[in-house]
Amino acid sequence: LPGEIEDLSRAVERLCGFRRITIDELCDEFFCSRSSLSHKFKQYTGQSITQYIRMLRVESAKTLLAGSHMSIGTIAATVGFENSNYFSNAFTAAVGMSPSQYRKSRG
């Protein structure tokens, strides 16, 4: 079972980098129900699939903030956040500083 979770983690990472993904798409790919997938993922990783996806997006945003001159709104959209305010709030909660503060601290 942990191998399945590892496969799922890789699939999330692969898909997350290209577009917005849904838990239902992952269920289709892994032939299981939403509740089963969510339960197994949390059991083995300690976080929900949604939390994991958000963490991947924030990590990608950190890389872009430190290494590009893209606007924060463009970075938010690039990493899969549909709303730049939600991105800013999620980033601040995860990192402890706003995206603009993070960029300044790395520049």
Query: On the 0-100 scale, what is the average pLDDT?
Result: 86
Order of helices and strands: HHHHHHH
Largest sheet: none
- Residue windows where pLDDT falls under 50 for at least 5 positions: none
Give a short summary of the structure.
The protein is mainly alpha-helical and 107 residues long.
Summarize the structure in words.
The chain has 107 residues and is mainly alpha-helical. It has seven helices and no strands. 76% of the residues lie in helices and 0% in strands.
Characteristics:
107 residues; mainly alpha; elongated; 76% helix; 7 helices
Give the topology, please:
Blueprint: H1 2-16, H2 23-30, H3 34-45, H4 49-67, H5 72-78, H6 84-95, H7 99-106
